[in-house]
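Hi there,

I know you've been waiting on this one. I reran it after we fixed the sequence typo, so this is the corrected version. Both the input and the resulting structure follow.
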Amino acid sequence: MKKSLIAPSILSADFARLGEEVRSVTEAGADWIHFDVMDNHYVPNLTVGPLVLEAIRPYTKAPIDVHLMIEPVDALIPAFVKAGADLITFHCEASRHVDRSLALIRQLGAKAGLVFNPATPLSYLDYELDKIDLVLLMSVNPGFGGQSFIEPVLEKIADVRRRLDAYKAETGREIALEVDGGVKPSNIAKAAAAGADVFVAGSAVFGAGTPEGYREAIAALRCAADAALAERN
């Protein structure tokens, strides 16, 4: 049976102890580390770059999922791969040539994915499924942590799940479906039931404040998601 993957977002971590925080959530059961990159251009906020990724890479063996909220994207992709990114996703609107950006990520040895804001049409998937390993659906509008989950995104998750299941039936290749924004124990089951299998959680994990709290938070998220996945399957 398919299991959920929990990806704590460092956006909600204590940046004064970032390496320790990454190690703590990994030891607490995190499957991936979600690394949010904002440029104060594509989104109205400024966060971290390749040097920070390179600095935290030794603190975890978990895959690091780099979410680029930057424009343009191509110039910085090589730097993030070199710094240790395992997966790189970017927003469809932020690339002048989506196909070329996806190809660059994969040529450099990382897995590639597309990010869809709540209002971004899914038509990009009509052309790019053979070049992506991950679809990331935003359940908030990007730019800031701590926002509330946008419920209509559940319909979008279900729509993407149907597309990915049809693609898998045709090709045998599986593409992960990730959801990011306002995910917490009270709504993760809905997202899993709709079709997501990777869940980004920021304050829902790091808000617990201690390594033991992180373990309990991740376990609660995973339990709720796995129960919904079991019913879905």
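Quick highlight: The chain has nine helices and eight strands.

Best,
R. S.
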